[in-house]
Request: fold
Amino acid sequence: MSGKKSGTDWARVRAIREDAPIPFDPEDGPYDPNDEAATEAWLSRTRVRKPGQRGPGKAPRKRLVSLRLSPEVIEHFRATGPGWQTRIDETLRKNVARQRRRKAS
Reply:
């Protein structure tokens, strides 16, 4: 075991009876999961994709490269939390756009 504490409220989960209705608020989703006809109608219109699959006609917008960065740059962006690689990309794209504007003027 990893020793990591679960965030699940197991007492609440164990208290749920199998035949109990699923709590639902209209703001929760597109259909009431307790309404079998509504559930079937919604699922019949839904296409299920495997994780990582892109939609039809979607080409990858980014390319995988190997890049060496200074430790200071990596530490700075990692400290900003998840999505740090995307933020590096955004910073570089802004710099490219700024340079293109300078060349154009």
Observations:
- The chain is about 40% helix and 0% strand.
